[in-house]
Specification:
392 residues, three-stranded antiparallel β-sheet
Length: 392
Amino acid sequence: MSEPLWLIPLFFFAIATGFYLGRREGKRRQRRRMESLSQEYVAGLNFLLNEEPDKAVEALLNSLEVSDQTLETHLSMARLFRKRGEFDRATLIHSHLLEQGELPRPTQEQIQLELAEDYLAGGLFDRAEEVLLEMLDQDCEKREPVVRQLTHLYEQERDWSSAISMGEQLVKSDPKIGPILAHYCCEEADAQIARGELTPARRMLRRALGFDKQCVRASVVQGRLEMRDEQWNDAIDAFKRIWKQDPDFFDEVLDELRQCYQHLEKEEEFIKLLADISAERPSTARVLLLSEQLRERYGDREAADFIADYMKANPSVRGLHRIIDMNLQGSAQGEAREHLGMLKELTERLTSDNTVYQCRRCGFQTPLLQWRCPSCRRWGTIKPRSEGGNPS
């Protein structure tokens, strides 16, 4: 015989009531747990604000169970300590996280990368290298960031060979790293030249140009290396390549280029080269050198007229200084000579105070050419300042 119909809604009401009461009790327990957690978490923050970082770390590790929901809190706290230079506390948090074996592999790899960053920031290169190489041995999923960190590590250690080998793995996915690797090659070539290893240095410079055919530094070092071996034609080829790579740097090697042509007794070819590039893109340095060559060949009047014509269109302190110097060496006498002497002294002070190199990225200025900016730590950003930007 079937149950009376009125029992059916009663049955569903009992189920709903039990579900409601059970859920309310669960929420109550969860609220108590969250209140306890919240109190410990607030205590940790108070320790941090009161400059008690050790207690803050302890409170954090005790109060927050490591999970996908709390992981970012742990990582943010560790990054804060690392930013403040408290690397031991950052490594403590990351080490604690790695002890949680139940975390998924991508999460563990993220924590390992953060731990390696702690060691790098703290100057513990051996430990950072150990962590990163272990990740590569384990065929990690985050291979590219691991290789980047290792490249950065070897750069800081000035282990250029390892930096090149590691960074080379990134070229296909990130072609922008090519010019940086070219500088690594030049650094290694400089070290080889200092040890007298000239043949390996030549290979390294060719490798630099393979990474970046526009690498001015490689051409400069190569030209000077060939001069050292009295290979004048090879040196000329290397120096002339700079004109196509970046004309702003061409004036850096003008004197050396002139020496090469002089050793070959081809001064006329040098004069023609200077005339051609000055016509294409004039600069005070090129014009002054050309005038000096003209003076040696054709006399003072020819050179002075040449500079005067150039100065009318491109006035500069250095050009004025050269004209004054020529007149002082010429026929100027009496009061005129005295005035010219005062002007020469003034132009010498103006040209000697100039900062001639500047970083295009951060604006850092220096009187010496450096291939890496000491301020923003970028490679290849320092260039000679344009003549429109300074009085020279």
